[in-house]
């Protein structure tokens, strides 16, 4: 019995000597929201709020024979904010969320290059959420997906 009391007293003393920790989980940080015009080729980890302007299904594959295989759906959606627009490639369940005039939050989005132009995508490590309607007007005359990029190798001498 004496050892249990001693152990409890030592644990209480150790708890008093350590600074009090809050209930915030380490590793979680506040998201930094960026604007569409800040997106650059080859970057990832973006969090942004955008409105869906249009959604076009470009691929719908699936086998009717085997029901256990998932159907693959891909849609190209034009999304934007008050700084510009970009094409977002929605896959499978993301396609259902891409309704015109919907406001979405993209978390951990990345830039994929397709035929020299930027496409925004969210893979399995990211998230697409529908949120309350945003109060901004989309700047439709600045489409970042229409800018064609070319990879240039620079030789240092």
UniProtKB/TrEMBL annotation:
Record field: compositional bias (Low complexity) = 1-15
Query: What residues does the Single-stranded DNA binding protein Ssb-like OB fold domain cover?
Result: 39-130
Q: Where is this region: Disordered?
A: 1-26
Q: Which domain of life is it from?
A: Eukaryota
| A Pfam match | OB_Ssb-like
Q: Which PANTHER family match?
A: OB DOMAIN-CONTAINING PROTEIN, OS05G0244600 PROTEIN
Q: Could you identify this protein by its name?
A: Single-stranded DNA binding protein Ssb-like OB fold domain-containing protein
User: What organism does the UniProt record list as the source?
Assistant: Ficus carica (Common fig)
